[in-house]
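Sequence and structure are kept together here, with a separate record for every protein. A complete record is shown below as an example:
=====
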Amino acid sequence: MTRLLATPVRVGHVVLPNRIIMGSMHLGCETEADAPQRLARFYGERAKGGVGLIVTGGVAPNPRGRFGADGTVLDHPSQLDHHLPITDAVHQAGGRIILQILHCGRYARHDDPVAPSAIRAPISRATPRELTEAEIEATIADYARTAALAIQAGYDGIEVMASEGYLISEFMAPATNHRTDQWGGPLSNRLRFLDRVVHAVRGAIGEGLLSVRLSMVDLVEGGLSGDEVVAAALVAEQAGADLLNSGIGWHESRVPTIAHPVPAGAWAWATARVKAVVSIPVSASNRIDTPERAEAILASGAADLVSLARPLLADPAFAAKATGVQAGAINTCIACNQGCLDAMFDGRPASCLVNPRAGREGEFVAAPVAVPLNLAVVGAGPAGMACALEAAARGHHVTLLEASHHLGGQFALAERIPGKESYVATLDWFAAELDRLGVTVKLGRAATHKDLVGFDQVVIATGVRPRCPDIAGIDHPMVALYDDILSGRRVAGQRVALIGAGPIAFDVALYLLGPSAPFDAEWGIDRTLLQPGGLAVVEPAEAPARAITLMQRKPGRPGADLGRTTGWIAKAKLQRAGVVMLAGVAYRHIDDAGLHIHVDGADRLIEADTIIVCSGQDCDDSLAQYLAAAGRIVHRIGGARQASGIDALRAIEDGTRLGLQIG
């Protein structure tokens, strides 16, 4: 039931059809030659999907404010042609879109970053130059110029980014503003830049919609206290804001804010503090992954609207499905960050693990088939399910065969990892879509070549099998494969040695440590917000139930292959639990005493009750080889095609591409 979510709401001079905002996100293609067309398709599809309001990725008001040397700037009429296709596409689909103005301040990654004070950010390489008072005044004028140009480009309004550690945040927080002039010192001075920018933008856009995105809690030492956040919200309202959109934390914060270990809806309490004192609408954000979660936040009175970013990567029709305008299951964001934020930080365009079309709408186009095939897909892991789904949607007759008694393959093990419980939503969505599209699903029996007689073509998606390293004693009874442990077929003892230190090994270690402490206690969240930044002292964790040693052959820090935006969370958890991590290890042999290794120039025994192998995977493609030798038309996808580096992101994309092409 999503009664409140589907209710229209007045924001400024407009009435939005529902209470779902598409929050700002970058796609990493904004400066490409075909960016206007790609962004038009991307935002147009979300507008068609029924979202009440769209906020673009951040656009800088001047070159110094851009994120990188090629960052997007809007400061001249000649740039309007870049934006007109975007606003046209959204309006043709019946939607509304506002441009976010974002000055990166000291987070900028170019040669001339500027900030209120010359204080380097922990996540930046360069120390920013302190803005002069004349430059501050010029920057305020730049915000107004960009806002006016945005209205000319057809945007319905502006969002001022005053959140998450960017320039306006830097002016507000004492940690980053050490000025002694009218722009620094007491809170009223530190809020002056916010006040002037919002006033200037309001003057430039007339009755256009004006949103201000404000961090409801900073989560950094020397950030704003709760009362100071409220004061900033009141300043933004009085300066002309129509809407306050929630940001949570700064990018340099060592508290997770949107990754999968963060409980869904975890930050609504911070938004509620601001909503209680302002008279304009307030939007909650961060880890609002389902309509039910959004409805509960609205019903609690914590917010008037909800802002979703990654959930609209996962399913562009989220709003239409949530409000009952369109039937069908929602493809839920699982907050893995692999396809979106990790890709962006690695310099690749953003997409989505569960929806590879996201950001590439023109590349993944489904065309009905002229002659339907009788198609067998062997293996119901992510690759096989994605292929079966797309092929069936195009008109093929698809049978999906799986040896185990459940869908998902090794992806089904992920939900057993503390913090990844939401991964089951992807399996539920696939199951619902396969049923809706009429795919015949046969579980519980490994397919043989005899089962595949009569099919026109066969897709092999049998995935991978764990690789067993060549170590003397590897057949010892204390040795287990990672999937034996995660599936529950084997139970580990109290002393555990992990061979391997990749993503699977870290997941196994988290699984063995068991459930974490309550989120606020684990990460030191102070809900009273009396302390600047909203941080409390983290109490020492209790001794873990198991002693774990994690090892890798290669030198360097273990965990280098983990996700850019989530790996640090896993490493922090393991370090707090006392997990020992060793690199440059040579494995000697295994006996009753444990695992004998050579590391740091010396032999060493890792005493263990259980040794778990997490040292890579091999293709499970023997059936494909047999069928190909027999002259059958066979396609390999996912881990059955290439085991090296396989993960759900690549597997789902692999399956999707073949499903769109086959036949």
